[in-house]
Amino acid sequence: MLGPLGPWLAMLGFGAFHGLNPGMGWLFALSLGLQQQRERVIWLSLIPIAAGHALAIGLAALLVLLGLQFISLSVLQWLTAGLLLLFGLYKLFNYYRHPRWVGMKVGFGDLFLWSFLMATAHGAGLMVIPALMGVTGAGMDHSGHAGHVSAAGMDMVLAVGLHTAAMLLVMGATAWVVYRKFGLTILRQHWINFDLIWAFALLAAAGIAAWMAW
Amino acid sequence: MALWKPDPSFYPSPKMAMQAPPERHAYVAALNYGRNDQPDAICVVDLDESSDSYGTVLNKMDLPHVGDELHHFGWNACSSALCPFAPHPHLERRYLVVPGIRSSRLYIIDTKPDPTNPQITKVIEPEEVMAKSGYSRPHTVHCGPDAIYVSAMGTASGEDGPGGIFMLDHFSFEVKGPWEIDRGDQELAYDFWWHLAEDVLVSSEWAKPHQFENGLVPEDLLANKYGHRLHFWDLRKRKLAQTIDLGAEHQMVLELRPAHDPRKSYGFAGVVISTEDLSASIWVWHQKDGKWQMEKVITIPPVPVKEEQLPPALKPFAAVPPLVSDIDLSLDDRFLYVSCWGTGELLQYDVSDPFNPKLSGKVAIGGVVNKKAHPKSDSPLLGGPQMVEISRDGKRVYFTNSLYSSWDDQFYPDKMGGWMVKVNVDPDGGIALDPDFFVDFGETRVHQIRLEGGDASTDSFCYPS
């Protein structure tokens, strides 16, 4: 799509998208700060949330690298497209379902775990696999060379890092704007159905994976 | 259909919920158990002051079975859907979850497309409720952030064993199973609510089914065998964390009203009667050094009367006990309303300082001895203030007069009927009966009221005011 830059931009874009989703963290961080009446808590809470998200994305990257050791890129792309299609369809009809979590009294460890759980259960990692394959795919088509593997590994780390940085930036900016300017009323008026958009994003990612494999 | 924007009746904080538009109608549980062969019903009462039918029953939706005994009920979803750890703001506050406390049947009632003409959309038969939840006699319904929680008074198998809480799926209304993982020595059940920001659930104790289904058992009451404890649970681990015994003489700890503002971790519990002096009492729970504590902050004494004025159940005592059966806290945590079902009074306390409540208003209606009439009723009234509901803005309070079929007959043996009244609230404290609002349900009795869009005993909030 946008040449070699495309997959990198996609990683950034998905990061911003994940960061904007109230169910992925900024709202939790904001509520903790409000509850404890300490603004610092908002910003500090975003760190473990971003780290938990990064772990989920990192695992997806690891799966891509591992997968390419055993199957070809185009098979992996088809496989990803199929998985994304199935999961996207499932989410389309179950977009409102979340993993079970009841708890507002959370420490950083809890937030890390919570974020990892939310990202994994909603398929945040799966969603970016096409982009991850784009980042590393070209050099990995025929598995084997050790040099390629380590270079691909570096690319993956960079991609996950960029994604997480974009997510953290957008989470922080959103929380800041809501906290400083709009207040919680914005939740009533402008909280669009992100869960449903998410399902469509999964389906779009399925389309991209299929297009890449074609 | 999926919603694109959040349900407009969901509010992040109690303060925002107080800006909600006034309610236009109420859903009222109407029961005919043991009086005639009519089924129970959900009645829709017009509350819109500008409407021609203000203060009348717009519609009565009869249930398909006889003998359910409707009691408490609740909404499928409320403001807790905005809680940040698992938000689903695009759920709709649309379905009423209505248990039959006697039949153990659960009705799911759809208030759309016409909110004044609700329809049954699903019936969960008693066998299924009991098989899947392990409990019987469902009671309080609360819309939780992750599921619908329902308390139940008895076990599925019979009368032995503990009552507790079970969960319903938010979306499919499937019974998911019992909520508790470790209940400790908790055995009796009744009401429950929570401090979501503290991950704490609080539950109270009434009695075992055989102690209430056929009426109050005087020997059990005098032997202090009704509930007198409060339980504090870890909401996350679903585990009993602490139990507080109010003292055996404090019989029947019923309604629980935690502060609405998630920054406050205190709440109020009402005790029906003390076997030492027939008084009723209100207690505050609060946290100190990580432990829950309770203090009695209000004592309401009995009123001495001549024996011949009393129903047989009360003759030996030569007094009317206040019998505090329900309490309700306004969304700003400022006013606590206390129903004295025996003496026929609704009391309003200013609880801005929860440890020093100040009586700020009262209205008298009904009562075992006084039977005080309403300006719009043509005869003395039986029953007294019972299930109270406060509008979200705190300006209007509604209540009904029935407690529980067999108990109504003990305390008000002269064929008590059902009525609902409205109280107007002075913003600075003080209450007065609305002389134009008196809904006469005839022989049918009425219990819990739920207001359009939510009320002061439905929604819980995860964001501070």
From TrEMBL, chain B:
The catalytic activity of this protein is classed by the Enzyme Commission as: 1.8.3.4
Task: Name the InterPro entries for this protein.
Answer: Se-bd (IPR008826), WD40/YVTN_repeat-like_dom_sf (IPR015943)
Tell me the domain of life. Bacteria
Q: Which reaction does it catalyse?
A: methanethiol + O2 + H2O = hydrogen sulfide + formaldehyde + H2O2 + H(+)
Q: Name one Pfam family in it.
A: SBP56
- Copy the pathway line from the protein's UniProt record: Organosulfur degradation
Q: Which family does it belong to?
A: Belongs to the selenium-binding protein family.
Q: What is this protein called?
A: Methanethiol oxidase
